[in-house]
Each structure stands twice: as C-alpha cells, then as structure tokens.
Write a structure and sequence with these properties.
By secondary structure, the protein is of the alpha/beta class. It has eleven helices and twelve strands. Strands 4-3-5-12-6 form a five-stranded mixed β-sheet. Strands 10-7-11 form a three-stranded antiparallel β-sheet, with no helix packed on it.
C-alpha cells in the first residue's frame, strides 16, 4: 500500500469534499477519486458514501481515519527525528536542480546569493530530472529543489516558491514538416500522426496528465533534456515543454500552443519540506521567498 494514498484519504476524510481536498493536494479531482478507489480495493471495503450533494465516511472509513491519523503522526514524528539527528551532525544543505534550468539567470545567482548570506553552510549541489527531484525531496534525500514542474504534479507536504509560470508548448525545429507546410495551429490529429519526444521517468507518468492522454505515432524516451534538444534538432519529432531552460533566449525553435483542452502550465520553482526542516533550512527557504523577485529570466 502506498503511503501517499493514506495521506490522500486523510485529507479527504477531513474535508469531505473532493474538490477542496484535491485543491489542497494540488491534484485533480479525478486523480483523487482514482487513488481513493485503489485504496478501497486494497482494503476490500468502501470508505466513503458519495452523493451529488455530500460525501460522508462509512463505518470502516471512520475507523481508518482514526487509525491512519495515528499512523501519520507517528510517521511524521519519526521521520523528523531521524532527519534532524542526521542534519545536526553537519551544516550541509543538499540542493537538487533540474539540469535544464537557466544557469546564468537563476541557478548560479541563487546559489551565490545563498552561499554569501549563509557562510557557515555548505551547499551540496546535484542535477537531476524533474520527477527525480520531486521523489528525492519527498523521500528526504534532498533538502531543497529548483525545477520546472507541471501544474498537475503532486507536491503534497512541500512548500513552494514560484519564480515564474509559463504555458507548456509544442516545440519543433524549423526543419520539422509542420513548419515547412506553413502550419499556424496544431490539432490533436496532427499530434496523433506525428512522433513525440519524452523525458525518461523514474516512475510512471501521472495517469491524468497530458502525457498519458496525448496520442502519437511513436514515442521516443530520452534520458535527459540535452538529449531531447539534440533529437529535436533533427526535425523529425516534436517535444512539449516550456520555453524556460538554459539558453532558451538563443534557441531557434518554432512553438505552437497545445489544443485548448490539453493546455497546462509549468512552474519554475523552489520546493522544500518545511514542516520537517531544520531551523537552518527554514531560514534559507524564507530567504528565497523574500528574494524571489530578484531573478529575471
């Protein structure tokens, strides 16, 4: 049983409203419904009675709320105790960042600013893919992350500072057949008949995301963003991402809007699990929040 389903259940058991619970969890109502259904299948019982006007706990649901709350309290307390004990031995803050982020406009200035402000702290920097960063942060392997994140992603338990929000776009090389044909707008049919580039995921794509819904002639999975850009240059395939990456200002690509009901945004952001953070990490995160408008990219 995935612990996040227990967390989802507890939020819904408190709110008794799928839309409000999904909003707090930063996921869609459909995603929350699916996760609750999976939890009910695992437990072999119904946890909620749902009508068009109300959501109520069943008898088994009330029991799960009581016992799962105890379990989460114990889990949070134990994890915080272990992490604080480890971090108290050193003043190292582990920073993960999406390797494709603008280096000169965001990553380097931010790290320099933090190193200057917090001279007694050693910032350990490591690059990764987007989903890898989220999983590492939520798993306690990283203290702070800088990334581009889809707006449908689950960042439950994390506090976020958003530097910039931009739409995802269909991106192609000027050599792509769509450009040569003079297309001004791309339809779902166009996408279904073309080849898409996707970044490798450490886990499955969220089932309610664009990546699960989009149909394409073929999918090429690549290990990192640099590989995607090299493949994009060949002019045979398209990618879907925001124009927020290193050297984006000098990139020679043609961008199209996604079809209306497939549109979503990316957030260039910093995330931290402040509820379980050390005092030093909380100070660092508050410092980033205060200076978020100092970065222009």
């Amino acid at each position: 049983m995935e612990f996040r389903r227990i967390e989802y259940f507890l939020v819904l058991a408190e709110k008794l409203n799928y839309a409000k619970a999904a909003n707090e969890l930063c996921i869609s109502s459909q995603a929350l419904t699916k996760q609750i259904q999976l939890l009910e299948e695992e437990l072999g019982t119904k946890l909620f009675e749902r009508t068009t006007r109300s959501v109520t706990l069943t008898e088994d649901g009330a029991l799960c709320k009581e016992r799962f709350s105890e379990l989460k309290d114990h889990y949070d307390a134990t994890l915080a105790e272990v992490e604080n004990a480890i971090r108290s031995k050193s003043h190292v803050i582990r920073v993960g960042f999406f390797a494709a982020l603008p280096k000169n406009e965001l990553v380097n200035p931010l790290i320099h600013m933090l190193s200057t402000e917090f001279e007694d702290i050693d910032f350990e920097i490591k690059a990764n893919n987007m989903d890898g960063l989220r999983d590492q942060l939520k798993g306690g392997e990283t203290d702070l992350v800088l990334t581009n994140a889809h707006d449908f992603e689950d960042w439950l338990g994390c506090e976020i500072v958003v530097f910039k929000t931009v739409p995802a776009q269909i991106v192609v090389s000027s050599k792509h057949p769509w450009v040569k044909a003079g297309k001004k707008k791309i339809t779902k049919k166009d996408m279904a008949e073309a080849d898409i580039l996707l970044l490798e995921k450490h886990g499955p794509y969220e089932f309610n995301s664009f990546y699960a819904k989009v149909k394409a002639k073929s999918r090429m999975i690549l290990p990192d963003f640099d590989s995607m850009m090299i493949e994009l240059e060949k002019g045979k395939r398209y990618g879907v991402f925001p124009m927020v990456f290193n050297d984006a200002k000098n990139a020679d690509y043609v961008c199209y809007d996604l079809p209306d009901d497939w549109r979503f945004n990316y957030r260039t952001m910093c995330a931290c699990r402040t509820q379980k953070a050390s005092p030093e990490l909380k100070k660092i995160f508050q410092f980033i929040k205060k200076h978020k408008n100092d970065f222009s990219f």
